[in-house]
Amino acid sequence: MSDDQRFGLARQVTLPGPLPLDGGGSLSPVEIAYETYGTLAPDRGNAVLVCHALTMDQYVASPHPRTGKPGWWRAMVGPGCPIDTTRDFVICANVLGSCMGSSGPASIDPSTAHPYAMAFPVITIRDMVRAQALLLDHLGIARLKAVIGGSMGGMQALSWPATFPSRVEAAIVIASTARHTAQNIAFHEVGRQAVMADPRWNAGDYYSGEAPAAGLAVARMAAHITYLSEAGLTEKFGRRLQARDAKSFGFDADFQVESYLRHQGLSFVDRFDANSYLYITRAMDYFDLAEEHGGMLANAFRGTLARFCLVSFDTDWLYPTAESRTIVHALNAAGAAASFVELSSPYGHDAFLIDAPDMNRIVAGFLGNPA
User: Fold this and answer.
1) How many CB atoms lie within 10 A of CB 185?
2) CATH 3.40.50.1820 spans which residues of the chain?
3) Residues with catalytic annotation?
């Protein structure tokens, strides 16, 4: 077994572009950081694109270079895993607008020789997909065996066959949605306002000084609540207090759940850029696949022959099962081949990131990889 099947190969490429953007104009050049696992078949027919969620990156099955933590979906990608790197050639690219090597607000603007900051162009999910297509062109991959993603990654997985109907054989969409609700947008806006209220944000121009860590940590804490379920929080923390020598009242982290959220916020700022958080959450809020296709979601899928697999979780209140059913109804109306399952889990939206045997079996079976 080769190392690239287990650990992946980290790469970064600068493509000349231009990359047309939904907001008008274009981006040129385009930097894309990505990892690959496995070996591309001679006919180039075994390529699987993994699309990551908002706060993830290209290190899907490899240790993260900043945190040292294992890959975020190592139970899904690897030798003998549902996405089997002894069979499949797996690509995972850091999305456009992010901060782990792909073009984003922290990148250098060629016209000024300084970081773009808030001069970086506004981006959409479809722009992210177009950037991934540029990468596949660079790699000589004309057609994907499958595209798969959860949460924001699921948005990309939906957008791929809608944007490039002849380039995708199958799409696996997990715990995702075809558009954000007002509640989704509201939660994101709270996070963005927390970042922008931090004096160190400085209208986005903080790269030569201190980053707005406090604001970004609060944004992460607020968002993290939406990734969990009430049952999961109650089981894990309840109303349990932190161990103390004496009873005291105040505004320290008295409850265990408070300490947990603060840890999530503080650890997040060590690996993520605040401006990237603003740009990517806005891209998710703008995403509306129906609106992109004349207001009819079914129209997004009429031109594709791709097979679809959708998975939801019964405790996910961020993107509840009803959102997946809406997509399935549109796929049925478009005559697309679609399968759907709701799985039971106490972990809420984050269930797709946790080792879930039922989900793993479904993905392996859909891809034709024996468990």
Assistant:
1) 16
2) 3-181+288-367
3) 151, 316, 349
Look up the pTM and report it.
0.94
- CATH 1.10.1740.110 boundaries in the chain: 184-280
Is beta strand 114-115 parallel, antiparallel or unpaired with respect to 108-109? antiparallel
Query: pLDDT tens across 225-268, in order?
Result: 999 999 888 888 888 888 765 455 556 778 888 988 999 999 99
**Length of the chain in terms of residues written:** 371
What is 224-289 written as a DSSP string? Answer: HHHHS-HHHHHHHTTTPBPP-SS---SSS--BHHHHHHHHHHHHHHTT--HHHHHHHHHHHHH-BT
Domain 184-280 classification at class level = mainly alpha
Binding-site entries for substrate: 220, 350
- Among 3.30.70.3280, 3.40.50.620, 1.20.1250.20, 3.40.50.1820, name the CATH number for the domain at 3-181+288-367: 3.40.50.1820
Structure tokens given for 87 = 């069979």
